[in-house]
Amino acid sequence: MPLLALPPREISLQERYSSRAVPVNIHMDTPPHIDQRGINVVMLGRLFQRKSLDAIPQDAAPPEHQLRRVLGPLQLTLLGIGAIIGAGIFATIGTAAAGDLSRPGAGPALMVSFVITAIVCGFTALCYAEFASLVPISGSAYSYTYATLGELVAWIIGWDLIIEYAVGNIAVAISWANYCKTFLKGFGIVVPDWLAMDYRTAAKIVDAAGIRTVYHDAPHIFGVPIIFNLLAVLIVTVITLVLVWGIRESARVNATMVGIKILVLLFFVAVGGWWVQPANWTPFAPNGWAGISAGAAIVFFAYIGFDAVSTVAEETKDPQRNLPLAILASLAICTIFYIVVSAVFTGLIAYPDLKAALATEQAEPLTLALEHVSPRLGWAVGIVAFGSVIAHTAVLLVFQLGQPRIFFAMARDGLLPPIFRAVHPRFRTPYVSTILTGVFVAGFAAIASLDEMVDLTNIGTLFAFILVCAGIIVLRVTDPARPRPFRVPSGWGWTLLLYTGFAMGLLLFPLSQASKVIALAVSAIIFAVSRNNIFPVLGIISCLYLIYYLPPTSWPRFAAWLNCGFVIYIGYGAVHSRLTGRQHSSRPVEHDAHTAYTGIGLALIGVAILFLTRGFDLWLEALKKHDEVTGLTRAGVALAEALRPEPWLKLSWFLIIPLALTVCVLCPIIIKRALRARHLMDERSYTGITMVSLTIAIVLGVVAIVYILLVAMRFGPLRFLLHQT
Q1: Residue 278: CB atoms within 10 Å
Q2: Same domain, residue pair 540 and 568
Q3: In 3D, which of 569, 663, 563 has the Cα closest to residue 614?
Q4: In the chain, N or C terminus with fewer CB closer than 10 Å?
Q5: Residues 675, 709: one domain?
Q6: Considering the domain boundaries, does residue 452 fall inside one?
């Protein structure tokens, strides 16, 4: 077999970092006189070069990089429950049941929405459990994909996990502030609205005369109202200090809070169950399957957290046994709670009343439901508000615990600056990354909107789940003989069982007999082909299903986030990586050519994703305008309208900002490295790819600048700078 056809060589840590080892070129030196096709094969191999599964645990071997192992199975399960039960059940349950302007509500069928989401998370939880037993190290999905899908995908998922943990915590902190304000009000302490919400939420609150009351009551500086979420900033600050203190102390605090919020949820079920009106469950699904699916996509936020258990692998005793047990146990326990609570909630307040209430005010759903059935339940409202404050605090604790450990793992691999892997000499916690995470979360929690953060968190987490499921499939092929303390079930038995359940569910759909027969036949083929990877495959499909029902505006935001990640990876990670970085290469000139080529590829992919998501958003907007036609005619009319120049010249910051980053940061980096490689190159093998990188970077930069100028001219320079999307 030719040398260039071989897969990327996995390099152990002993070879890479031992001072006694013979220096190893981890870059697969390119033979001097190979054709362009051979160079492309080498480039592709480097781009997806993997860390060895045997080497990953040894990354934590140096004493200065070790964390304290103190967590047992009970503490881990409580951490999982602490992360799962929180803002999702206390805050998003209202939007999921009532819907909003962009999606229908599930109504009483919210119970079914929770079951659907539990099944989706169950598929992924099994994959997380197998990975956690194989790679018991901090970093969660980031570490898993590094060993299976390569460095680039690992960076993407590591960057993506910031959405799940840090951005998710922004949403939790905002929801915490809402419930805390309600709780304090019961004691006569009134927190002004302008100190407990963001500008966009405040703009929705108006009185009978149409006056924005929060804007009117807030203090003004130079005519600008001062509105920010002080309560959210304060709680994030306190949580950050607790986490710097130590993991054992954090786990004890979490265990106490988990016990309190479980008792409060049981209290809500007991008190609310007395006032439930079965008539409120009719109609059961007012918006049909579309409402149930949209509700499932929203309440997915309520399940985020079971994977947070895997981020503390290096602080777990016997992680191969305890991590899978805690992941699956916490998910099962929380699912039972969610179904019961949603049944009581939808039985307390009718769907039309809930929809009307949430359309005109910022309310906490569970306390709103209790207040709706009886004004005498003020004491119960206070208890539930207190429980919600505790629940949110527990979620903040676990998510703030997880994000710094992902930064810690990425910095240890060289993809982030060394400051992120600094460990406190006394507390043995990653204190610098913990503090930086706290500053990031607190800063955005002061000004961000809850719904926007929830939607962005959902799409980012679902994308991470897809990559984890794909990693299990890849590992089945690349390393089938490796011993697995826990293995995702597979085979004909499980496949037939799952297919039977799918077929029974499909029969409940309002489809024609022909459509059902076709769907059953196609799904039978998919199930049969995927029998050896049935759970990971179903995990990928079900995650894509939930992504489809997220608001279209969340897609361009996620695309913008990915583009920012590409810029940071090419600018820093690709240079300092301990696996493929320039300083570890025996041929730095070749490395410059490689990163320039990789950079232009990522730039093109990023820009394409930006415009595709923007175009899809415009197409969906056009669809809403043409209700008079149906079917393919409607889709064609909407597509024609979306392809007109006018909508593309409207300002969208989620397109303009990442595009500007590509022009001002990524393209100059690519040009600099390509020119440096051409200047120092002593052979002609890489002349072609450096010229390609230079040409495309210059053309892409010019085209992007022209587009930005056209938007600015259309919108007006001053309004362009001040506009808020």
Answers
A1: 8
A2: no
A3: 563
A4: N
A5: yes
A6: yes
Please state the domain count of the chain: 3
Q: Is 604's pLDDT higher than 80?
A: yes
Q: Six-digit token pair at 484?
A: 């697995």
675: its two tokens: 């020119």
Let me know whether 542 and 565 are in one domain: no
Report the C-alpha gap between 81 and 79 in whole angstroms: 6
For residue 177, give the nearest of 200, 197, 194, 199 by alpha carbon. 197
pLDDT digits (tens, 9 = 90+) for 105-159: 888 999 999 989 988 888 988 888 888 777 766 556 787 778 777 888 888 888 8
Mean pLDDT of the chain, nearest integer: 79
CA pair distance 196, 226, nearest whole angstrom: 11
CB 127 within 8 A of CB 535: yes
Condensed to tens digits (0 to 9), the pLDDT of residues 508-553 reads 777 778 888 888 999 999 999 999 999 999 999 999 988 888 888 8
Q: Give the domain extent around 372.
A: 72-478
Q: What is the dihedral of CA 213, 219, 223, 224, to 10 degrees?
A: -80
Of 478, 509, 538, the position where a domain reaches its end is 478
Closest of 276, 263, 295, 299 to residue 372, by C-alpha = 276
- Indicate whether 328 and 411 sit together in one domain: yes
Q: What span, in angstroms and rounded, lies between the C-alpha atoms of 461 and 153? A: 15
Q: Is the bond leading into 485 cis (omega within 30 degrees of zero)?
A: no
Tell me how crowded residue 721 is: count the other CB atoms within 10 A of its CB. 9
- Please say whether the beta carbons of 549 and 294 come within 8 A: yes
What letter does residue 484 receive in the DSSP assignment?
Answer: -
d(C-alpha 164, C-alpha 703), whole Å: 33
Whether residue 717 sits in one domain with residue 643? yes
Asked if residue 32 is part of any domain, the answer here is no
Give the number of other Cβ atoms within 10 Å of residue 106's Cβ: 36
Pairwise CA distance, residues 652 & 659, whole Å: 11
In a domain, 78, yes or no: yes
